[in-house]
Amino acid sequence: MKVLGLSFMYHDSAACLLIDGDVVAAAAEERFSRKKHSLDFPETAVATCLGMGGIGVGDLDAIIFYEKPLQKFERIVTMSAEGFPKGYRLFADSMPLWVKYKLFIERMIRENLDYQGEIAFADHHYAHAASTFYSSGFEEAAILTMDGVGEWATMCKGTGKGNRINLTHELRYPHSIGLLYSTITAFLGFRVNGGEGKVMGLSSYGEPVFYDALMNNVLRVQEDGSFEFNLDYFSFYKDLVMFSPKFCSEFGPAREPESELTKRDENMAASLQKVTETLVLTAARKLHETTGLTRICIAGGVGLNSVANGLIMEQLPYEDIFIQPASGDDGGALGSALYYYHQVKNQPRRWSMRNAYLGPAYPADEIEGFLQRRAIPYRRYQDDSELLDRVAQDLADGLIVGWMQGRMEYGPRALGNRSILANPTMHHMKDTLNARVKHREHFRPFAPTVLADRVGELFTPALESPFMLLVVDTRPDKIDVLPAITHVDGTARLQTITREQNPRYYDVIARFGEKTGVPCVLNTSFNVRGEPIVCDYGDALECFLNTDMDRLVMEDCYVIKEEVHPHYVPTNRTPSSTP
User: How far apart are CA 468 and CA 463, in angstroms?
Assistant: First the structure.
């Protein structure tokens, strides 16, 4: 059975191809179109996935969309009617897109793909639940999904067993952890559906001085983990602005985008993060109490809050956790395909997500031809061991390396195939990367990738975190050893790697460890602020040429910046870093 899952028309459009229960390919449209958080029909992602599966559109047995548009439209109309006349502006602004496109998703799919077969629709939160439980490899687990909003639900709790999912509880719009986070993200001058991760990073610089006011005035939490907003503080349900004048009257004026951050802003971010952790922990704790299950699966945009995820494992009696790496709407493409195959068609499970490398790869011969056409000096290594040793030495010398290999990652995290790598032991490296390579805010942290069999030497608790979705503590005696990846609060957003998951990436880290005594590298996504992570060698070269990266590795092709730009001075020149 060949099933194509799709998500589009809201944000993070994506496609996923499932053949006989195995996920063959999955990718977000933004990587190809270069439009970050693209909502467009995922035309190139579909073509790429079908090409990787070696099939055409006519070979598909079904196409599944990741939510039910008519139910979502019902929610918008209902909320607008309840809020009339105040809700009219939001209703009027959204209607053209609904009338032209969103009410006719099936027609869009058929016209864009020239497809005449079966089209089905999955409930949004069931798609999230399917994306994590069916990917987890767990035979039985508790399931928690949390996001802004699907059709009506904003949080769902339930269980999965075998090939069946049963969501038993839901929290409904407008009460939403995701929308609370987005509201305060907007209040702090960052972009909604894009800036939430910045706010999580900023939160470590402040104190949660507004926590009590938020918990007592803005929302009320129930014993079962549900909560209700005091809607006087919000406008997103009736207007184009997320927060209301009452919110500003209590917490001060909203920050202008790109303006200087104040202590108030840092404290608000810290307070929001603590509220989020309280809500997530309360829901996860109650879920454990009611189900008795010791494994938990998480998805939805809130699942990208790696700090809250880490606290679940630290504070609650769960023995294992799985967070689907494409937790946002891009993961809906994966979830809808899995939901249809297992829940609707009652097919047995055979696949689990051992890594997130589900996108396209590009042959070294093709990369070499591209470099030759562009007249870029390069060396092609015939001995991969020699290349890996060279890169490990570059990193030890303080050089910044663009690293592109293998299949592109699915989800918002670069996990060693579309990454920028650097030395985590250098105190200035964080500021250098933020200012001269990533071109982003100074406060944003970087993550470590550590060999899974040595994680306990550097971090505590020694958790397995293959998708960089758990925050742990850097061991106190290692904070000075790892300044570039240890956040201001002594934590790190951890990625662990085994040789089975990614042998080439594992080996370069192991060689770096042999040279430095530290089995860990700094890993950040191969992109600059405001752009999607690179997809192919053209994207990678342009990013390399326009930033202060020192070396570029694309499969076995190796580029030295000074040979491309003779007057370039490496960011951290040391005696052994000359070409």
Answer: 11
